[in-house]
TrEMBL record:
GO terms for cellular component: cytoplasm. Gene3D superfamilies: 3.40.630.30. GO terms for molecular function: protein N-terminal-serine acetyltransferase activity; protein-N-terminal-alanine acetyltransferase activity. InterPro entries: Acyl_CoA_acyltransferase, GNAT_dom, Ribosomal_N-acetyltransferase. It comes from Jiangella rhizosphaerae. This is N-acetyltransferase.
Length: 194
């Protein structure tokens, strides 16, 4: 059974190299800059452009949301914004959730994505009580797919030619992780290994 109180307030989660902190107004400038990165837009399939005012309003409204979790990923040493992670598809009836993650260019390829995902998974499976966590990744992002697989996600399907990016049709790969599989990985000691 889903613990909706564990979704109503976004906690701070601390790892070895990063911290997941509630996304707030103090992250607006860094988030705005990250959304302006063409590679980030491509990897996330984001066609939309954002104004600074819209980002300010979004960041200011996060504490008022009780049906999703929005984190800023911060460097544990410097406190610098390294990216964002959002759990935005919590389905209490089916005990499932979905998420998206993005890292700013400077922090890509350093293993911080899997660390952030493991922190989030621990919270979702142990505190929120979800049974399944799902995600979508575009076929032109194999590095992200490998990161998700490293965290235990398995490919469950493919939505063919679902994204049109610069004239190219790109497949969406559907991936998921069940609580039982995550617990088995933790028991084997793999979930905390990076």
């Amino acid at each position: 059974m889903i613990n909706l109180a564990a979704v109503a307030t976004t906690p701070t989660l601390t790892g070895e190299r990063i911290r997941l902190v509630p996304l707030g107004p103090e992250h607006a400038q860094a988030l705005f800059e990250s959304l302006d990165d063409p590679e980030s837009a491509r990897l996330t399939g984001t066609h939309q452009t954002f104004t600074r005012e819209a980002i300010d309003a979004f960041c200011a409204s996060r504490a008022d949301q009780d049906d999703r979790l929005d984190w800023a990923i911060e460097d544990a040493v410097t406190g610098e914004y390294a990216g964002g992670l959002a759990v935005n598809d919590v389905d209490a009836d089916n005990e499932t959730a979905g998420f998206r993650i993005d890292l700013v260019e400077k922090y890509r390829g350093r293993g911080l994505g899997p660390e952030a995902i493991e922190l989030m998974l621990r919270h979702l499976f142990e505190e929120v009580g979800v049974h399944r966590v799902g995600l979508e990744v575009y076929a032109f992002n194999p590095r992200a797919q490998r990161s998700y697989e490293k965290c235990g996600f398995v490919v469950e399907g493919r939505v063919r030619e679902s994204l049109l990016w610069d004239g190219e049709r790109v497949d969406t790969i559907l991936m998921g992780l069940l609580r039982a599989d995550w617990l088995a990985r933790r028991k084997e000691g793999r979930a905390d290994r990076r």
